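My current task is to audit a protein record that another person submitted. Thanks in advance; the entry in question is below:
***
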Amino acid sequence: MTASLYPRSDSVRAGGDIVIRRALADDAPRLAELARRTFVETFGPDNTPEDMALHVAKAFGPDIQLREIRDDTMVTLLAELGTTLVGFAQVRRTPHPDCVTGPLPVELLRFYVDRPFHGRGIAQSLMRAVEQVARDLGGRTLWLGVWERNPRAIAFYAKCGFVDVGEHSFVFGTEEQSDRVMAHPL
């Protein structure tokens, strides 16, 4: 697989026909749809429909994703196969939990590859792009929170060099859940 990175004019080939680029304002509607769908597919079976509906209403929608795309403290990357959006990641400068002790931490907020495209190397290409964006944001440590009941994601992040450094709470709908905090040096 090959990939490309940043705006359409500056995209990077990641492998095959995969292009990784920075999201633009007109990407918000299809990003919102992919973000909502992949989130529900990933976490829906293990959460109540009521909590899922509350979270999705607060986190996903064209207006929400447009604000995120325009946020100067965040970079949203898209992975595309032709005209099909197959994955995305969001990296941001934000306060970090105390357990993240590495220098100049930058957060990997969201990282999703659409299920039909798993196993094609897209996630690895997208992670390399995330690491470059984190460096571009001035980071020397990349950290993330991953639900403790998501072993597939935890294994992927460990394979990418992240180590478990602690935990923090995440409010999902009406329920407080526990995330593992993982970090790795850039």
